[in-house]
Hints:
Blueprint: E1 6-9, H1 11-23, E2 30-34, H2 36-41, H3 44-54, E3 58-61, H4 64-72, E4 79-81, H5 89-94, E5 98-101, H6 104-116, E6 122-127, H7 139-148, E7 154-160, H8 173-192, E8 198-200, H9 204-209, E9 217-220, H10 231-234, E10 241-246, E11 249-253, E12 258-259, E13 265-266, E14 271-276, E15 294-297, E16 300-305, E17 313-316, E18 327-331, H11 337-343, H12 348-353, E19 360-363
Parallel strand pairs: 1-19, 2-3, 2-9, 3-4, 4-5, 5-6, 6-7, 7-8
Antiparallel strand pairs: 1-10, 10-18, 11-14, 12-13, 14-17, 15-16, 15-18, 16-17
Helix pairs in contact: 1-3, 7-8
Amino acid sequence: MIQEARLTIDLKCLAHNYSLLRSMLKEETDLIAVVKANAYGADSSKIAHELSKLGTSCFAVAYAEEGAVLRKANIKEPILVFYPQMGQLEKLIEHNLEPALYSLEIIKAFISLLKKKKKTTYPVHIKCNTGLNRIGLSYEEFIYFLKEIDTSSLDIKSVYSHLGASENPKPCSFTQKQIDAFELIKATVIELSTKHPKFHLLNSSGIFNYPELQLDAVRTGIALYGFANRSEWDKQLKPIAKLSAPICQIHTLKKGESVGYNQGWEASKDSLIGVIPLGHADGIGRQYGNGIGKVSILGQSASIIGNVCMDMLMIDITSINCEIGTEVILFDQITTAADLADLSNTISYEVLTGLSPRIKRVYI
């Protein structure tokens, strides 16, 4: 019996994933652990502390505020901020965070701020766009940066880019174009710069698919949490999270009665309906209603019926011998977040990062 909705995080699974990924890398290759989006729905501070114990020497987040949270939790390791915004530049310096500088505008603004604060050799990373076309300097902008901008206030720790289809089967012409573009960037740095930054290109899927391109570092997020975007890779990893909740009420319905908003489900026979304290405000979207989503109760499958509400969802338990307080599992290490994602044509990332902070996190 459980009393409330909870996300149970298995730290042994986290350790397994970290060790597996580390074993795939050369000793000299850095592993940058990505703990953005609250460590993919878990808890960034708790996960970062655990990864630090395991040997992680560098973390990455999306925005400066996420880095500030880690600093307040006494995380001492370098923290790379992938997407710093203009309004966050002061916070970067305040918390000794290392920004990825991805546009000429933000480069100039940050250098100006460093000069104003009389800061020198501040650690930064340079993000280049090689084809994903999300953020990053174009090759022409990168040349301008190297030739025309005074970088004396910067300690350029790394130059990197991001693959847009690293999980696609090889050979992949799109990925090869990105690889070629990054090789040109590396050669240009070596030719034009007196500084010696590290280079990194691979994300989680890339570690599995392109081990020969691990370079000086890799960035891994989703694989730490148990997924790698291909079934044969996923089998090597262990999902760290189980989402479960108790049945909080059971209704007896007669044939023809309905369940939920807009009479989303109608009983075709006398039925038992369980109510679960999770809804779309918790990250279980309306797309899982009306029989699309499945849950597990005492090893048996039950359908989510009617329209998922903001704070509740309903399941058909007519054929299951259960009671109020019985645990209902939405995903775990067996039927995973990726399996739930498949039911609504999305990905494990969205399921995990969409989980509300009001769901209690429990660690084992």
